[in-house]
Amino acid sequence: MSYTLLSVSEPTARKQHKCIWCGQPIEVGEKHRHERSIYDGQFQDQRWHPECDDAFAEELRYEGGHELEFEPYGNQRPTRSAVGVGIGARQRGNRPHEPAILRPFQLGVK
User: What's 14's domain CATH number?
Assistant: First the structure.
């Protein structure tokens, strides 16, 4: 399994996008996490609500901190107050449009 993070940014959406975690829209004007990476030779371009990004990090810590399998668009969007790690605090990868995903994780790498 190989993973290369190409870029991470925190843009304000100029058009509507879809969050990889919950599947809900990231609306125009909403700040979000945008991540580009290569995972096992496949290019990935993922976007996350800040609260979904934090929920992923919480799940990852609960599971031991290295890999987490989840269904894209199949998780519930948490309220912003339910989590609080902060956008952009993690590095990870994801294969788009596959039912089960293992994502590498390095805490503290930006």
Answer: 3.30.1740
